[in-house]
Design goal:
Structural class: alpha/beta
GO molecular function: 16S rRNA (guanine(1207)-N(2))-methyltransferase activity; nucleic acid binding
Order of helices and strands: HEHEHEEHEHEEEEHEHEHEEEEHEHEE
CATH class of the largest domain: Alpha Beta
Family: Belongs to the methyltransferase superfamily. RsmC family.
Organism: Acinetobacter variabilis
CATH topology of the largest domain: Rossmann fold
Helix content: 25-40%
CATH architecture of the largest domain: 3-Layer(aba) Sandwich
Strand order of the largest sheet: 3-2-1-4-5-7-6
Main location: cytoplasm
EC number: 2.1.1.172
Number of helices: 10
Amino acid sequence: MDPKSEVLLRQYDYLSGRVLLVNTPTDELLAECGESIRPFVWTWNYNDFQYFQSQQAQVHFGVEFPDQEFDQAVIFVPKSKELLNYLIHNIAARLKQGSSVFLVGEKKGGVERAAKQLQAYGKLIKLDSARHCQLWQLTLDCTVEAKALADWAQTYTVATPKGDLQICALPGVFSQDHLDVGTAVFLPYLSQVTSGKIADFGCGAGVISAYLAKLNPENRIFALDVDAFALASTQMTFEKNQLSPQQLEIKAVSGIEDAPLFLHAIVSNPPFHQGIQTNYAASETLCKTSRRHLKSGGELWIVANRFLNYPILIEQSFGQCTVKTDQQGFKVLFASTQKNAKES
């Protein structure tokens, strides 16, 4: 069991009624809950959502607060400070004054820093410290007005040969307030991507998806991500730039295995973080298996840190891998499937 869940269970008697569990670890926590509480999970990670569904748990996947009433809430500390601000504000706006909100997290994950973000909402006490984790209890004593989702988005401008793009990024989304170096290196090469049915794997705030849509109005973009905040950000970015909604299909995925088939191209600045941990599994699987989602003559375009072994993995799958550029610590990688003589 996750140590954060173990610490929460040590103080189980503090929990009662309808309890909202936010950003919950995928472990046996819910199975350990007795009849004194009725747990409900809120997650924005599609993998976690599928796990809790398999456990027959009550679970909500999305960026908005669940359309339910709760007596208490437990927040498992997210990596992003801005995301925690979003969560506590929404919880404080929905729970009654006097309700308890619990915060649990690892010391190395910044739980003490996170606890300070709750101080403005009421009385805060530390309940426990064990397993390299801490558990805090907040008693709400303020009135908070809910804010529209769009008010939480940060906006920044990306200059492109096709004109400026306005990027909208919600809390917790990768590179929320600026264009990351990898995507900046990648952008000049997107004009070489074949047109048609294109998947942007790990779409983030929608920089790549929006630029591909702007490059060619005939492109059909499938924006794929495990994170509901990323998917909502991409939707906002398209709307902000008045791009045709018919060009975009948003889809929550566990990995590249959930991508459509017969794609003309897959483009990606692959994700490699899972919470505070580094995890290359999804992007390595992308390199190994993406060709089965491409039509004959289809293309794979990836930008990645130069120290990663992606060129080898791509070459093993496609038979070749071209390095289009190597700059600022990033490589742009290209591969294509063999084109059938019968297929135009």
